[in-house]
């Protein structure tokens, strides 16, 4: 297969990662028991050694969704640790015109110290009320919340990759 055909098969994220010097590898399943890792970005480190960054790409699901707010998953639908506590080095949120890139550990640290997400209040029953509140879908154990994107801009690792 020639490289032109390979490029056509790449997602917009993989295309941008390639332009930024990475060799993206899409994971088909949980490789090496990596939880919540969708891609590996291979690159050469400063000393010429292979550098592998584990990424969890959060694809855009609803183009009408307010892009000023980002969903965070604390627990999945089964009540197990959500992707926020997965094995990815970076979380990448797809938006209509770009991708928002943040370091997962820095994001977890921010969530723990920001004192904005209200764990002390009862769960909310509607997604539209999940701004800084914990929302649980009916008949699941999932726990998610929304945080304003401008808050994530304060993280040192915050980047925007234009499409």
Report on the structure:
It is a single chain. The protein has helices at residues 3-9, 12-19, 104-113, 149-152; strands at residues 23-26, 39-44, 50-58, 69-75, 90-94, 98-103, 143-148, 159-162. It is globular. It contains 4 helices and 8 strands; from the N terminus they run ααββββββαβαβ. A hairpin with a 3-residue loop joins strand 5 and strand 6 (98-103). The chain has one domain (3-162). By secondary structure, it is α+β, with helices and mostly antiparallel strands. The protein has a 6-stranded mixed sheet with strand order 1-2-3-5-6-8. The protein has a two-stranded antiparallel sheet with strand order 4-7. The longest helix is centred in the middle third of the chain and has 10 residues, at 104-113. Helix content is 18%, strand content 29%.
SSE blueprint:
Layout: H1 3-9, H2 12-19, E1 23-26, E2 39-44, E3 50-58, E4 69-75, E5 90-94, E6 98-103, H3 104-113, E7 143-148, H4 149-152, E8 159-162
Parallel strand pairs: 3-5
Antiparallel strand pairs: 1-2, 2-3, 4-7, 5-6, 6-8
Assembly type:
single chain
Q: What share of residues is helical? A: 10-25%
Average pLDDT taken over every residue: 90
Q: Report, as a whole number of angstroms, the end-to-end distance.
A: 26 Å
Stretches where pLDDT is under 50 for at least 5 consecutive residues are: 1-7
Give the tally of β-strands: 8
> Beta-strand level of the residues, as a percent range?
25-35%
Let me know the largest β-sheet.
6 strands, mixed
**Major sheet: order of its strands?**
1-2-3-5-6-8
> From the helix content, strand content and strand pairing, which structural class follows?
alpha+beta
Which geometry do the CA atoms define? Answer: globular
Number of helices: 4
Elements, N to C (H/E): HHEEEEEEHEHE
Number of domains: 1
Radius of gyration: 17 Å
């Amino acid at each position: 297969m020639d490289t032109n055909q390979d490029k056509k098969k790449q997602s917009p994220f993989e295309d941008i990662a390639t332009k930024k010097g990475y060799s993206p590898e899409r994971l088909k399943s949980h490789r090496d028991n990596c939880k919540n890792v969708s891609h590996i970005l291979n690159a050469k480190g400063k000393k010429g050694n292979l550098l592998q960054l584990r990424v969890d790409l959060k694809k855009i699901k609803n183009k009408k969704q307010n892009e000023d707010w980002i969903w965070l998953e604390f627990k999945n639908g089964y009540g197990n640790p959500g992707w926020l506590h997965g094995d990815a080095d970076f979380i990448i949120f797809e938006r209509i015109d770009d991708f928002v890139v943040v370091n997962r550990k820095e994001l977890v640290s921010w969530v723990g110290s920001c004192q904005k997400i209200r764990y002390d209040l009862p769960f909310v029953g509607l997604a539209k009320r999940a701004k800084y509140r914990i929302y649980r879908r009916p008949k699941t154990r999932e726990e998610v919340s929304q945080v304003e994107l401008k808050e994530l801009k304060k993280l040192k690792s915050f980047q925007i990759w234009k499409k």
